[in-house]
Amino acid sequence: MAVLQPVPTLAPAPLRVGYEAMPARRALAGSDVLAVIGFGTHTAGDDPREVVVPLHTVDGSVAPCEVWRVHGEVRHGRDGDVAWAEGGGYLFVAFCADESAYGGPEAAADHAYRRLLDCVRRHDHPHLLRAWNYLAAINEGEGDAERYRRFSIGRARGMGDWPAARLPAATAIGHLEGHRGLVVYAIAAQHAGHPVENPRQVSAYHYPRQYGPVPPSFARAMRVDTQPPALLISGTASVVGHATAHVGDAEAQAAETLLNLDTLVRTAGLAERLGGRGACLKAYLRHRGDAPLLRAALAEAGVAPGQALFLHGDICRSELLLEIDGSFVVA
Ligand code: 3EB
């Protein structure tokens, strides 16, 4: 009887990310560049790999670009209202639009996710690793009418029957601009990542009814088993179980958030310390005045100043004063 030989599977090459203090057009010159994320209110150029997130740094300084690189040549293009870039086993997809054209955050998120997932499937990179969502006035509206909840309902509808076990790590933050620009972008891969949940927290996709009619669609983190491995960490805040901890106390929220981040990194089996090699974090603050205490807490956790970008934005629960996402941690 013939012995079946195992089919050799090509190990995916690592995805790299870092903050680079240069104009986007210079960063885009690299043929290995999958995406360049800028922060501010300037308009993006024509390159489909560039996205501008309408958030300012807490001190008003010019933000560096967040540059994502792969091993290999990147091809890019546009498919109607979705921008895409593909290379090295990864796919970047982005949707940026004025949500008013869809009548609000719910319909806009529904449309954005439908279009982005269509693109992910068409490009044969079916494993969604990480998604970022930025919308205006995220806490406006009471109860289930809150804009974040409407966004979350639309996102869930747009994702259709996407299984909970395959949800990406994600961030959802409110911007403070007058316009109703919705920015959604994501990274997908040919190879599956491994979702990581936080044992200190209820999985967001199991949140009880009190947080909205549909639970938010995201995993706490996504481990990518490249050599070296990587961890894409969702927006992480002062949530214990499913409750907001330390309402009104930014310092205690910072400590709880760092404990949640540390728990995720350890649960994923990666780095010893949060500020290890390759950490690239974004700290979002509802009040700019809380930046010094968060900087001090991050320094204490071993995060170097250049590894964290501090942005002024609203968190999706009005009692949350700050949130941190760890774009990447390499063991
Ligand atoms: C939380 O832990 C905070 O809706 O995509 C964090 C990260 C949060 C992502 C999302 C929401 C989202 O529940 C909120």
What does this structure look like?
The structure is a single chain. By secondary structure, the protein is an alpha+beta fold. A 7-stranded mixed β-sheet has the order 4-18-17-20-14-13-12, with helices on one face. Helix 4 (250-267) packs parallel to helix 5. The termini are far apart. The protein has 5 helices and 20 strands. The structure holds 3-(2-carboxyethyl)benzoic acid. Residues 133, 152, 170-172, 204, 216, 218, 234-235, 237, 239, 316 line the site of 3-(2-carboxyethyl)benzoic acid. 3-(2-carboxyethyl)benzoic acid binds next to strand 10.
Average pLDDT over all residues: 94
Sheet of most strands: 7 strands, mixed
Low-pLDDT residue intervals, each spanning 5 or more residues: none
Helix/strand class: alpha+beta
Shape label? globular
Total number of strands: 20
Oligomer: single chain
Helix content: 10-25%
Instruction: Kindly provide the radius of gyration, computed on alpha-carbon positions and rounded to a whole number of angstroms.
Output: 19 Å
Total number of helices? 5
Q: What proportion strand?
A: 25-35%
Distance between the termini: 43 Å
* Ligand catalogue: 3-(2-carboxyethyl)benzoic acid
Order of neighbouring strands in the sheet with most strands: 4-18-17-20-14-13-12
- The H-and-E topology, N to C, reads as EHEEEEEEEHEHEEEEEEEHEHEEE
Describe this protein with a few key phrases.
331 residues, alpha+beta, 7-stranded mixed β-sheet, 5 helices
